[in-house]
Predict the structure.
Amino acid sequence: MILGAIDIGSHATKLKIVEYKKEKYKTLEEIIYPLSLGKSVFESKKIDAKHRDALIKCLKHFQSLMIDYGVEHYRALATGVFRNARNGQIVIELILRQINLKVEIVEESIERFLTYISLKDILPDYFEMRRQGMLLIEVGSSSSEIIVYNNNKMMRNYEIHIGTLSMKELIYNIRRDSLNVPQILEDYIYASTENLQNYLIRKKMRHFVILGTHIKRLHQLFGDKPKGFSAACFNEIVDKLNTRDKGLKKTLEREGLNYDEILSSMTIYSQFVKHTEADFISVPDVNLRDGILRSLVENTFDYDRKVVFTQDILKAAKQIAKRHHSTASHINQVDKFVVKIFDAFKKEEKLSEKDLLLMRLVSILHETGKFSKQVNYNQATYHAILNASLLGVSQDMLYQAAQISNYFFYFSQGSEIVNRSYKTSTKNIKLGLLIALADALDKSKLAHITIKNIKLEKKHLRIVIKKQSNAFFEKWTVRALNQHFSEILARDVVLEEHAS
């Protein structure tokens, strides 16, 4: 299978073509074409005609190469520079019209997610590191992502609004009033991440992986190991940055690296490395192109429930639910029921694994609004889902999940629908109703019912259940949904007790 990946960034447009065979990649072509779109956008907030035409010419060449190599599947992504450009979408449409090449403007959370999934190919012991305990930190220009893995599961996922640009501005302001820049920076980061740091102190992760804008270049200049830093080397660099070592500063200036941006990113990393047991700091050579290729191989964005990265998304959602004091036993029960009900309707309603992920996200997050509002909390839940930070989940998907939660609350509580649109999706209504049924089967939150089997019949949805004790409340709630089921899915729900 021949695959292609195009990454349109601020400073260069890049192409990678590979042959994927027997779980291995063979690079057939890799091109980095320097093109400073970022400068154009920084100066005018848009991609000017000169850079636009140069980009189209470059992409036409890339397209010809993909045709020559017989590329079967490709994906072309435009990153932050297009997100920030006022005319980004217009340029994307122009590219499609002129050379018939489809380019997508990728959201930051998806961009990061794609970078992370390529770790599977770059780190040979990736899953073992996840099992033993791994802390991954990526420092970006405007924010940083912190992920904690243990027992091969994503345990925590935080996005903090601290990045190199905001820290650089902070350093400038501190220097006007104080000489204690390192200590103030350290205290500032700690104050912003206190809960997470206390968690890490208890867990003591064995592996530490760092990603970011400047870290690869810094590793090339000062790294003492082929694929990272020893803890001693890493700490020495941090100490030299804090004391404004003249030799280090001169090297950074010669290489065109901004001292304050390097100080910012290394201060963030060092704040967390001290809470790990790592004696080696890994700097994997990951990039967006490798993530795109991995996603094409695994059909990552089909969101198959068996794929580890889909499971990571669900785990991250459960962490959000936990922080909002949701009832863990109830959301786990509803989540299990949702999967069984989905499987019963999947074929008839032509539902996809992506639909299942959306249903599961709503079932996991449906109580988040209670944390801020006990009465009529559907609006608070709607906004909690809409504003959730979930790696690998686009804003469009979050909006769809929030809409599904609307219908869930309408069916389960008779609540008013938030942000009703005349473009209502019939599928979203049905998914909301199916989640309401799953919730009804554990309405008491006491796990009275176990589902043994579900049969989709011509006029009935027959659910074979085993009762742990009386389930009067659950049966009554399911009966109340029957009118909606009859109107929307042309079936009645029948609860049938399992013959012991």
